[in-house]
Write a structure and sequence with these properties.
Elements: H1 25-42, E1 46-54, E2 60-69, E3 72-79, H2 87-100, E4 104-109, H3 115-124, E5 127-130, H4 131-146, E6 149-151, H5 158-166, E7 171-172, E8 175-176, E9 178-203, E10 209-222, E11 227-232, E12 235-240, H6 246-258, E13 264-265, H7 266-273, H8 277-289, E14 293-299, E15 302-307, H9 312-324, E16 329-330, E17 337-338, H10 345-356, E18 359-377, E19 383-389, E20 396-399
Parallel strand pairs: 3-4, 4-5, 6-18, 9-17, 12-20
Antiparallel strand pairs: 1-2, 2-3, 6-16, 7-8, 9-10, 9-18, 11-12, 13-15, 14-15, 18-19, 19-20
């Protein structure tokens, strides 16, 4: 699906802060064990910390974290060192696990592992875990537990689904060359963020002046990737928001604010940014490559630029179409395949705040129903899949 040009007339901005912790290494070690215990509890294990166990050899072993599941035990060694863990620690943990009859052994490191340690772990079957990844996952799960969750029930069932999916069958000489096969109900997670947008308008006829206004907008952001939900002509798609440096973000915001339906010229961008032609051309080319703006040649050496990112007005329209009239059911869905979020709430808020320069007031997690439908060829054994977003009583093609 091709993207249409975007426009926006709003002003934006940003701020960031960071604080450091002054905890001792002893406190950090125990905090790490708490996080790791939480991580394995989420995985369905019964967890005990700082356990002393006798092995078959008669030796007593200190186990950082002991896991129990299905009458089997596993051990977790927590290494909060300043250097990568060497192979000797992997071999030691493996021998301890063998001595006490543990089925699995995990080693968690705050600074990674040496190449030899990784090789030995692969041979011995020792599972190596990165502390930062564990902390991120536990943090995300805690955030998800605290955020309000909703879901939308499918607006139609299997009978209408087959009829709707038939509209997307490939045809030759007006006859279908595919048939509708099996389908699966999926629930895709999205963050719905309520944000306050500040913008400037000009008032007065003779004595004109600028005044600052505020309005609330709703943003639907995928919880599995940094993508905005877009809607156009019964098609929903995800528009990826790439990583942008400060200059790229500044230029994108100018184009979103000033381009309108007719775009903005290269000369106007030079006047507004006061950059050199070399710098402006380099950043424009970078934004085009990242597919967030579009360039059109309207005359000889006359180019105009447009934003491919939805404007604040369009974001609100998309919310109204997709969720505005649909009743939200409280909690997580109980049927279908549930796709879990991969982006945390702070990440989602920071992305929207940075991109649009808005203050995010509220966020909730909403699972939207998507039918994954198999379309099978009538000529051979080939097939393809389409996805239909089932939020209203008509087929909406969902492109991921």
């Amino acid at each position: 699906m091709s993207r249409k040009r975007r426009k926006s007339r709003y002003s934006r901005d940003k701020t960031r802060s960071r604080k450091s912790s002054g905890k001792s290494s002893y406190e950090k070690g125990h905090l790490f064990e708490d996080v790791i215990a939480k991580y394995f509890e989420i995985k369905g294990f019964r967890v005990k910390k700082n356990v002393r166990m006798h092995g078959v050899s008669g030796a007593v072993h200190e186990i950082d974290v002991l896991l129990e599941k299905h009458n089997m035990v596993s051990i977790v060694e927590v290494k909060n060192y300043r250097r990568p863990i060497p192979k000797e620690w992997v071999m030691k943990a493996y021998n301890v696990a063998k001595d006490i009859g543990a089925s699995d052994v995990y080693i968690v490191s705050s600074k990674g592992f040496t190449p030899d340690a990784v090789k030995v772990a692969m041979v011995l079957g020792v599972k190596l875990l990165d502390l930062d990844e564990i902390v991120k996952e536990v943090k995300m799960i805690k955030e998800k537990e605290s955020i309000k969750m909703f879901h939308v029930k499918p607006a139609y069932g299997s009978r209408l689904l087959k009829e709707y999916a038939s509209k997307f069958l490939l045809k030759k000489f007006f006859k279908p060359i595919e048939k509708v096969g099996k389908h699966e109900l999926e629930y895709h997670p999205f963050y719905v963020l309520k944000a306050e947008l500040t913008y400037v308008v000009e008032v007065g006829t003779i004595f004109k002046r600028e005044i600052e206004k505020r309005k609330n907008i709703r943003v639907i952001l995928s919880a599995t990737c940094p993508c905005l939900l877009d809607y156009e002509d019964n098609h929903c798609s995800l528009i990826k928001i790439p990583a942008l440096n400060d200059n790229e973000l500044e230029l994108l915001q100018i184009i979103m604010d000033k381009a309108g339906d007719k775009g903005i010229s290269y000369d106007d961008l030079l006047d507004i940014t006061e950059w050199s032609t070399r710098k402006l051309s380099r950043i424009l080319n970078s934004l085009i490559k990242k597919e967030v703006i579009e360039e059109d040649e309207v005359g000889e050496e006359d180019y105009r630029y447009y934003s491919l990112i939805p404007s604040p007005e369009e974001l609100d329209e998309i919310h109204e179409i997709v969720l505005g009239e649909e009743p939200l059911e409280s909690g997580k869905p109980t049927q279908g395949k549930i796709i879990e979020p991969k982006i945390s709430v702070p990440q989602a808020k920071a992305l929207v705040r940075k991109l649009y320069g808005v203050e995010v007031l509220d966020a909730k997690l909403v699972y939207l129903p998507v039918y994954k439908v198999k379309l099978e060829s009538l000529r051979d054994n080939t097939y393809r899949y389409i996805k239909l977003l089932a939020v209203e009583d008509e087929p909406i093609l969902f492109e991921t």
